[in-house]
Write a structure and sequence with these properties.
It is built from 3 helices and 18 strands. By secondary structure, it is mostly beta strands. The longest helix has 20 residues, at about 1-20.
């Protein structure tokens, strides 16, 4: 019922505003804008677990994300924003429309912008901006499932000169789950840009991940430390990220720890062409699966086909030894996972 009401509200909002939004409608009260972003691919995938080929191997085309964004700016302070998304659910063999962000914003100054509702969390979207190739692969903690990109609550962000920050007090269950909880989770980030292009940031998260509700015993508190250093210029970028997590998704279960590191780089040797590569190393379950190790890398070439259209010919590989961990590419429940995928990825924005 909640999903049906949420979808009805989304469609109603889109219908009410679409007539004026198509070209960025300006009126006495403000401005309404519309936009979107799509991640798609056409690839060949080969996935094995325990030495056996898994059923989702083969050739296929996917539209993994399609964001539709709508915003209205009342004045220099007040605005509202809505971003819908859809994904494919293997349980009911159908696509599902849902809300990713929906918030009212008050921008009092560059150092003080308040958002109330479902909005971007401090770490993952910031990290994606530094990495630059989200349409090919999720960033480290998103790929391994150690964080949410958006959540329901109150958000405070600011940027002025070389300093930037973001703090969120949220329900903890992610944007898919607006359920009320007894306590709030807190996430934050503080960053500096001491010279143009050099980005240094530290972040963290503490909370119950939406599990602290009536009738549920939570014996642990999830915690995560985030660090990133990146140098981003128009012709190249390089960066390294590290996280350490405690009891993530284990607040009602046995205690566990995990950590991971990711290094990436890209360079544009000629106009419209960018070469990129990335390598991840993670130990996502140090206590419960002490031998489990996750290795991941990708390598490819991106072509700027049009102003808002990029294509990437890439190869991705992931391997898990001595255990099982569900990621964006590998299922849970299989040991000695070996994943390879090659093909064409694209990002289209409007």
């Amino acid at each position: 019922m909640r999903r049906q009401l949420l979808m009805a509200a989304t469609l109603a909002a889109l219908g009410a505003l679409s007539t004026n939004a198509m070209a960025g409608y300006t009126s006495r009260d403000g401005k309404t804008t519309i936009g979107g972003k799509m991640y798609g691919d056409l690839t060949y995938k080969h996935l094995t677990g325990g030495g056996n080929e898994l059923s989702n191997s083969g050739v296929g085309a996917d539209v993994k994300r399609f964001y539709f964004s709508l915003g209205h700016r009342y004045n220099d302070i007040w605005s509202v924003h809505l971003t819908t998304d859809f994904n494919y659910s293997s349980s009911d063999k159908n696509t599902q429309l849902f809300v990713k962000t929906a918030y009212v914003q008050a921008k009092f100054s560059p150092l003080a912008t308040v958002r109330l509702g479902s909005a971007n969390m401090p770490w993952i979207p910031y990290d994606e901006g530094l990495y630059g190739f989200r349409y090919v692969e999720n960033t480290l903690i998103d790929r391994l499932g150690f964080g949410h990109s958006a959540d329901w609550g109150a958000h405070l962000i600011g940027k002025d000169g070389m300093f930037n920050y973001a703090f969120s007090a949220v329900n903890g269950g992610g944007y898919h789950n607006p359920t009320r909880t007894k306590t709030v989770d807190v996430g934050g980030r503080i960053g500096v840009e001491p010279m143009p292009g050099l980005n240094l940031a530290v972040g963290g998260y503490v909370g119950k991940l939406g599990k602290n509700a009536s009738g549920i015993a939570t014996s642990h508190t999830a915690k995560r430390l985030d660090l990133v250093a990146a140098y981003v210029q128009p012709g190249y970028r390089v960066g390294v990220e590290y996280f350490k997590a405690y009891d993530w998704k284990r607040v009602t279960k046995s205690s566990d720890r995990g950590y991971g590191i990711s290094a990436w780089g890209s360079v544009s040797p000629m106009r419209r062409v960018t070469l990129f590569a990335r390598f991840d190393y993670a130990k996502p379950s140090q206590d419960l699966q002490s031998g489990l190790t996750d290795y991941y890398f990708n390598v490819g070439a991106q072509y700027q086909a049009y102003k808002n259209v990029v294509l990437a010919l890439a190869f991705k590989h992931e391997k898990q030894d001595n255990g099982s961990w569900k990621t964006g590419n590998t299922p849970k429940g299989y040991t000695n996972i070996n994943y390879n995928e090659v093909g064409l990825w694209t990002q289209v924005k409007f």
